[in-house]
Amino acid sequence: MDTPTQTWDLTTVDGVRDYVKGTPFSSSGKIVILSGGYTNFVYRVTLDEPFRGKTTVVIKHSKPYARSSVYLPLEISRQSFEVEALRRVRTIIPEGALVTVPEVYLFDEKECAIIMEDAGVESVPLKQFMIEGRLSVPMGERLGAALGEFAGRLHVWGKDPNLLEYFEGHKMAKELFAWFYYDRLYGLIDPSKESDVAALRDPPLEISDGDLAIIKKVGEDMATAVKNAKDTFVMGDFWPGNMAVHATEENELLRVYVLDWEICRPGLAGIEIGQFCSEIDCVRHFYPA
Known about the structure:
Layout: H1 13-20, E1 31-33, E2 41-51, E3 54-61, E4 65-66, E5 69-73, H2 78-90, E6 99-100, E7 104-108, E8 113-117, E9 124-125, H3 126-131, H4 137-157, H5 161-167, H6 171-183, H7 185-189, H8 198-201, H9 209-228, E10 232-234, E11 243-247, E12 253-258, E13 265-267, H10 269-286
Parallel strand pairs: 6-12
Antiparallel strand pairs: 1-2, 2-3, 3-8, 4-5, 7-8, 9-11, 10-13, 11-12
Keywords: ATP-binding, Kinase, Nucleotide-binding, Transferase
Organism: Amanita thiersii Skay4041
Protein name: Aminoglycoside phosphotransferase domain-containing protein
């Protein structure tokens, strides 16, 4: 997709302020750059007047490359697929569900900007919430059940042929996920080459030729499986860093928002759940309660 000619510079706070001036999202107050993302320019905007009962919104601006690296090209069409996913998924979530997705207020295709519901000024990623020790066992059980219900509902609904046909057009999502997790796996750990990952260089990773061969085969097989998968619709990046927790000062869970649907696609439910479980296990391992 060609990059549209843009009027506003949404890579800066001043540009964002000018962009929203005179709209229901105008702001003369705080506009904060949100950290954590690598591909987009994301801001929390404090509104001059509440919009649908909210005093803040999030603005997400995309470029045809990653924010963290202009040398990583990314298709602008990823925004259209994310907006379509958010809007469709919201229709299957029960009213008042603990786990949900943000509402899209406005999608400006020309400026490559999404204005959406904010999880809350005090919201934090689930990963951070866990690391800070704020998630008790009873809360974890409740949230785990709710996330399981969310994923199950998504993957059952996601088998609809028309839905899969539409999102099959998001070729970049499959290619990017396959490359990030599987295509480059062997190259990262091949002892005959210097790894790009410092932790794998010092100390050197010790791995037998037999294990190396297995890992290479697994990487190749899984990359092929990801690229050809049409089992169900998947969120694409289902991990605790993409789940914003809105809680009280007493750590009572109010709502959890599943964010960043840019690589949603037809995929494999097992990989989606496996990714989530492995990330949770990493937190458990490195930050034991």
